[in-house]
Specification:
mainly beta, six-stranded antiparallel beta barrel, 1 helix, elongated, disordered C terminus
């Protein structure tokens, strides 16, 4: 029986590079899956009374699974970077991207080793699966 759930949760922050999402092989997650981490990105206050008027939700990061288990996966930032200056100085290879840190709440790191931080409980929305035999992506057209 195929699971059609496309919204999961961040359940743990391992370090500045890796988070755990409660989605795994039983949910159809594989190395081609992609997630958007969604949550509160800003709080809006009245400038006179300081009353909280509401919150704005949005995308905090996009992640990919690097280790997949039956009911969870460990993910890292899908945006890998190769700074041109680093490559030109010979400090990195053009074939080895640097891992980019995730915007996490450091106080929530489970094993201590101007954005909105990722915290446990943030939604992890499956947004794309890359087809194995082509470079095409299928986009999830569902809305909140």
């Amino acid at each position: 029986m195929e699971n059609t759930n496309t919204t999961f949760k961040v359940v743990r922050i391992l370090d500045e590079y890796r988070i755990i999402i409660n989605a795994g092989t039983i949910h159809g997650i594989d190395e081609h899956s992609r997630f958007k981490i969604m949550g509160v990105v800003d709080k809006v206050y009245d400038p006179d009374t300081q009353e909280l008027l509401g919150t704005l939700n949005g995308e905090k990061a996009r992640v990919i699974p690097i280790e997949i288990y039956e009911k969870m996966c460990i993910c890292e930032n899908s945006n890998q970077i190769i700074p041109m200056q680093t490559f030109l100085l010979g400090l990195s290879s053009p074939f080895s991207p640097l891992r980019k840190k995730l915007p996490i709440d450091k106080s929530q790191i489970a094993n201590p080793e101007t954005y909105s931080e990722i915290v446990p409980g943030d939604r992890a929305e499956l947004y794309s699966v890359i087809l194995e035999d082509s470079s095409l992506e299928t986009e999830d057209s569902s809305t909140e």
